Amino acid sequence: MKKIIFILFIVASCAKQENILPTNNINYLFKDGFETQENDLMELFPSRGNRWTRIQQVNPDGVENEIEIESNRVLEGNNSLRIYAKASNSTLSKMDIEKEGFKASEGAIVRMEANFYIATTENLENLLLIDIECCSCWDPTVSDNKCPGVRLMIKTDGFLTIERSKILGTTILQTNMAFPRNEWVNIIWEMKLSPNNDGINKLFINNQEVIGNSLKTCGIFIFRQIIFVI
Asked: What is the domain range of residue 45?
């Protein structure tokens, strides 16, 4: 179970080497706390497009994944978003919400903040939390370009990582803090976009910096959408 308070910053100014990258000159901002009337899930997807864009649901064989607004376990306000997905079998299991409608160019800073509650102690290796999809980061002439993503994913022994294998062929690992369970956990993920090694990747768990390095982030940056998955 989790509540996501999702904030996206795209910042045109250059970044300084500080714990948190500067967020002046914000070009795009999206924030949602999943507040609804009478726990109506579809209120998150209004036709005018000012909240979330769509739900993606792919059920593994013989079971059905779940998504709902609930009010029993919240961090603030009256609601949280509960997403539940069974493990994949022959079918890749997916249960996510998506947000489209922004672009980020070289030199921009993308900042995401979310609060998660994972109500289990089971092994969650390869659990995907956030996926930033980028159609232009892969050769657009390739017929099977499926807009690969830079992904925030729980890997071996429960450590949260920045997984970039589909775009840059690398994964940024950390072993400073395993992802806490059965409590609200604040995540901040920041990237300064650059095709060179002056790009910045930062990851904070409960205000503790667990990843902070300078690596190229992508050659071309037109991100298509943000996906939250569990």
From this structure: 7-121+176-223
